[in-house]
Sequence to fold (363 residues):
Amino acid sequence: MSSFAALVAGLTNPIETLASFDAQVLLDAGCSPARVRELVKVHTAYYGKTKFTRKQANAIKVARSTRKSMDQLAYIEGRISSIEDPAEKWDLRLTLLSVKGDYKTLTRRAKDIVPEVDKPAPEPTVRYGRSNKKRRPVTIMALEEDAAAIEFATRQNLTDGPAGPQMYEKLMRILGLRPDAEDETPSGIAPAVPRPLVLIPLDEHIKIMGGDGDDVILGLTDGTTMTGAEFLAQNFGDVLEVAMFHPQEGPVNLYDTQRFANQKQRDLARATMPTCPVPDCRHAADNCEVHHIKAWSKGGLTNMDNLAMLCRYHNRTNDDDPSKPHHGRLENIRGAPMWRSPRGYLIPNTVHPFGAMTLLYGR
Fold:
């Protein structure tokens, strides 16, 4: 048997090889994580723990006899995923496994075998996608009457040419993000204005000695000390808003030399990592929540080395207990927040490579 024939044989009757399934082996081989998650569900159904052991054993026999392919097994699990009753789910799985024929035959017969689930109406919501060449998708699920009102307003007085770009410009004027033809001053929603900070690396001969209270004491190699505010006043004048970062400890403190900023820790955390640190998450730090890397409930302090900005979802799914890995968790790695996977791998978020520690120290 050729190597290709062996591959096809494994795909067309895989129920035996699934017994030794290992998701990490597939991930290490470069397989799609989404596909691996599908196969994990298949493996769990046929070889995972269940109180329906007799039906599980019977399902393996039926899958073998009808030569169900890997894609067919994955389709069956997806088709019955909405069934809540475990016994009913096993009965439907066995019925679908008994269907003889190719993938198209199975999908056609499944429409008659698996009852349609009456899904509730989707909740009105707004979602924001990832930027691509200065463009960012915005998806709105609106109430029917609201959508009708928006469509009516944006379709008025359309000229020749594509309607979509014209409706977009009309919507931006309605929101106040574009000046109206008669009034050149935008009104309504104010454009998002980023807050610039000057990032200052501390020289290696200055080290962090303490961080309690409103100021940080810096120790110099000449045996003297000075506060962070005094260091900035001496070196950078009295007008700049400056954020200082140590090459090992990360953010030190934030000073406005005219007056201290009320939310300096939040501002420093945003400067350290301008997006949620979880890999591929595109949520901007301005829209994130303050997260204690060591949970407050477990004695974590509200110090800069224990703070990071996490999006609403990842702040709630973070593994606060390192001994119980499930979704992954955030850690402080040499002054910058980084996500550690449930299997222990440190993985950076490279969506926005302009965090302070990256710009100042190349990491």
Observations:
- The mean pLDDT is 82.
- The two ends are 50 Å apart (CA to CA).
- The first strand starts at residue 125 and ends at 128.
- The chain is about 35% helix and 15% strand.
